[in-house]
Amino acid sequence: MNKTVLMCLLLSSGLVSNTVMTSVTVAVKQEQYVFTHKPHLIEVLAPIAKQESWYWPSAAMYLVENIKIEEMRKLLLNSLTRAIIGYQKEEPDIALSLEQLQSTITSWHLARRLPIKIDYDLARISVAANPQLPEGKYILDIALRKKTVQLFGAVNKTTKVPHLPHGDVSEYITGQSVTHLADKDHVIIIQADGRQMKAPIAYWNKTHQEVMPGSQIFVPFELSLFHPEFALINQQIMILAQNRVE
Hints:
Layout: H1 3-13, E1 24-28, E2 31-35, H2 41-45, E3 60-63, H3 67-87, H4 92-107, E4 109-110, E5 112-113, H5 120-125, E6 136-141, E7 148-153, E8 159-162, H6 170-173, E9 186-190, E10 196-200, E11 216-219, H7 229-242, E12 244-245
Parallel strand pairs: 1-6, 7-11
Antiparallel strand pairs: 1-2, 3-5, 3-6, 4-12, 7-8, 9-10, 9-11
């Protein structure tokens, strides 16, 4: 058969096409929504918006592509391994606290959090709050209002503590077992809405700073001339925590 005729038949039958179909996949809880176009946020939210009384301030959209984030996690885990080895003989308690932190970070589900405010009612009335999603795979993380806050970092054990309405961030540290490597003057709040802030907690510098339900409180490692590696470790932990999928 003439090659030109064969190609015409293939094209007409749909076996060959020069049209690339857009694919946007959004995972929500146990469901997956597939779009063959670039949907606006409202299209993604509409099927699930009224299913529960979602706590929209903590809702987040993540891009599944996270090669750079995984590379950072690998570097961080290697740094923690070196620190663990360095403390094992002289200060085994510190080594154990670092091991539990390493285990915590290993267990995290990571993806790139997008700087998008997720709010169904707002997306319905505001063009700016209803962006169009480019082609790709996404995770929409929505939940009911949480009753806890996660505390981790230079502590003996990663733990979830009850959320304190109107409570100051320093109250979450009171009674918790922090290691002597901890920064005693500041903590880092990774708010549930994605904001990250350095909060003073010492008696001499304390200012009232509240924590949203479902947030993370990172107790950073104190910076010193003897342990310069903790500057990078702190920075990497903060980036990973901000891109952690609940």
